Amino acid sequence: MLEQILVLLPQVLFDGFILGFIYAMIALGYTMVYGVLELINFAHSEIFMIGAVAGVEVFRYLAPLIPNGYLLLLVAVVLVERMAYRPLRRRGTTNRLVPLVTAIGVSFFLQDLVRLIEGLWHNEFFLRMRTIPDLEGSFTLFGGAIFIQTKSVIVIVVSVLMLWGLTYLVNRTKLGMAIRAVAQDLSTASLMGINPDLIISRTFLIGGALGGVAGVLFALIYTTINPYVGFLPGIKAFTAAVLGGIGNIPGAMLGGLVLGQLENFFGTYLPILTAGNFGTEYKDVVAFLILIFILLFRPQGLLGQMVKEKV
Amino acid sequence: MSLLSLALSLVFLALSFLAPNTLTAFLGLGALGVAAFARLEPRVRTLNLALLTLAFTLFLRNSGNTLGLIGLVGILVALTTLPRIPRGIRVALGLAILLLSVPIAGFANTFIFELGIQIGIFAAMSLGLNVVVGMAGLLDLGYAAFFAVGAYTWAIFGSPQAGKFLQGNFPLPGEYMYLFMLIAVVTTAITGLLIGLPALRLRGDYLAIVTLGLGEVVRILANNLDHPINITNGPQGITPVGRPPIDWFRSLMGALGVRLDETTDYQLFFYLLVLAMIGLVVLANVNLANSRFGRAWVAIREDEIAAQAMGIPLLPTKLIAFMTGAAFSGVMGVIYGAQRTFVSPESFTLLASITILAMVILGGMGSIPGAILGAAALTILNLDILKTFSEFVRTSLPWIPSQVDPAKYERLVFGLILVLMMIYRPQGLIPEARHRAELEEEA
C-alpha cells in the first residue's frame, strides 16, 4: 500500500497545486470583500460560475479572445454590488442577517438567471468547453512520474501572474492603499478623502475579476460546466480564505494552496487507505471538517490576527 | 363602500354556482381584497369574510380550481391579522376553513389535499426554523439536514432497508410510525447538538457557512452510505416506507358520514395529522416565545454581548434553540417519508434549506402567522403557480425553447424574493411586534 501511495505522490502533489491555484484565486475575492465590508459575499461563487460560462461561450464563438466575455462578467459584478448591496449599506441596518440573506438570494438568482440565458440561447444549460487542438497536448516529467497537460501549464502561469499582479496592486498602488485603508477603518478612511463607495465597488470588481479568471481556467480544465457548478468550489474557496485568515490576502493564497493539496490528497488516497470502503466522494466532507476544525481551534486562521470584539 | 363590498362578495357567491371558472376566481380574490383593505365597519367585514369563505368553498367544490385555495389562505391571513373581529368568529371561521372547506375541496380535486399536506409540512418546518433564525437570530443554512435525519429515521426502520444491516423482522409494522415520531425528535435533537456544538461557538456569519457545509455533509452521507454497509440505500433512496394502518380512521369517518375511497382516505388522514402537528407546533412556539428561553433568544438576537452581560449562558441557550428547531423538522420528516412512501437524498439539498429560509423571511422573522403564510405562499407558488405557468408557456408560447421550463426556476424566484424582501421589507409580510418596532427605529 505504501508503495502505491509513493508512486502516485508526485502526480497528486502536482494536481493539488492546480486545484489550489484555482481555490486561491476564488478565495481572494471572498477575503477582499470581507476585508472592506465584513460581509461573506455568497454570490462570489456565482461570479466564478459566470466566469466559467463566459469562458465557454467566448471559446465557442470567438476562439481564444477572452476580453469580450470578460466585460460581461465585470458588468455583472458591478450590477450585483449596485442593485443589491449598496441599498442596504445606504440604509445602514445594524442587523447582520440582512446583508447575508441578500447575498444568498443574489447567489440563487444568478444561478437560474444564467440557466435562463443559456436556455433561451442554446436550449441547453449543460455546457461543454470547445476543444482547442493547440491546448490538448501533454508531456511527462521525471520519467513518467508526472503527467502534465498543456492546459495545466496555462493555469499555473496565469494564476501566478494574477496573484503577483494583485499583490502588486494592493501593496504598491494608490488604489491598493485606499483599499487597505477602507478595510482598516471605513469611516476614518472616508475622512481622509477616500470615497468608500468607490473603493468598495473597485474591491468587488477586482475580487470578481479574479474569480472570473478562475472560472475560465476551471472550464478549461474540467470542460463540462453548468450554472450550478459554482457552489462547491465557492464554499471550498471560502474555507480556504478562513484557513488562511479571513481578510488577509497572502493568507487566502496560502489557504487555497493548502486546501487544494489536502483535498486532492484525500480524494486520491481515501479509497486506498480504507481499502475501497470510503471513496473519493468523501473529499468534500474532508474540506468541511477542516473548516470546522480551524474555526474551533484557530479561528483567526493561519496568518490572521485575533481581533477582539468591542462593545 | 360597505354595500359595494358586500355586493361583490354576493356576486362571487352566485357565480361560484353558475360559472366556476378562472375568471370567477379572480373576481373572488378581488372581492377578498376589497373586504380586507377597504374601510369597512368591523361587522360588515366579518360578515363579508364569512360570505367569502362560503363562496370559495362552493367554488372549490364545483371546480377544484386551486385559485380557490389561494382565496382560502387569504381569508385565513385576514382572520389572523385584521383588527376588531370577534375572537369567536376568528376561531370558528378558521376551523371551518381548515376542517371543512379544504377537505371538501380535496374531494373535488385530490391535488388540493396534496397541496394542503405539503403546505402543512413546510409550515411546521418554517415554524421550527423560525425559532432558530427568527427568535434566536442564528442563520442556519443547513436546516434540511434535520428534515433528512427525521425522514431517514423512520424510512430505514419502516421499510425492508433495516434488514440489510440488522438482524430482526423488518419492516416494522406501520403503527410504529407514531413511536418513531418521538424517536425522530430525539435523533434530530442529538444531530442538532452534534452540529450545534462546534457551529454555535462561532459568530453569526461563520455560523451560516458552517451550517451550510454540515447540511451538505449530511446529504453526502445519505448519498454514499450504501457501502460498505448499506444503511441509506444511496441515491436510489428508500421505498416503500410504511404507513400506519387507518382502519379506525375509515370507520370513524364512515360514522361521520364521510365516504372515502382508496386514494382519498390516506390523503385526508395525513392532512388531518399534519394539521394536528401544526397545532402542537404553534402551541409549543407560542409558549416558547413567552418563556424564559424565548426572551433569552430574543436578547441574544438583539445583542449577544449585552445578553451575556445579563447572565444568559450563550452556548447552552443557542443550543436549545437549535435543538428545538431541529426536533420540529425531524417529526415532519417522519410524516413526509410516510406520506410519500419514498425517501431519497435529493429532497434534502441546499435548495430545500433555502426554500424554508425564504418562507420564514417572506412571512417575517420571528412571526408565527408569518411563517405559516410564507410556507403556504411559497408552496402554492412552487407546486401550483409555476407549474401552471409552465403549462401556459408550453402551449401558448411555442417560440420559447423547450429547455426553458418555468417550473424549474425555483431558485430564480426564491432568490428574487430574498433580495427584494431584504431591500424593501426586511421585517416580512406579517412582522413580529418586537421586530417591527426595532426596524422602524432604525429607519
UniProtKB/TrEMBL annotation, chain B:
It is a multi-pass membrane protein. The chain crosses the membrane at residues 67-85, 91-115, 127-156, 176-197, 268-288, 319-338, 350-381. Keywords: Cell membrane, Membrane, Transmembrane, Transmembrane helix. It is found in: Cell membrane. The keyword Zinc does not apply. It comes from Thermus thermophilus (strain ATCC 27634 / DSM 579 / HB8). One of its GO terms (cellular component) is plasma membrane. Pfam families: BPD_transp_2. Its main location: membrane. One of its GO terms (molecular function) is branched-chain amino acid transmembrane transporter activity. This is Branched-chain amino acid ABC transporter, permease protein.
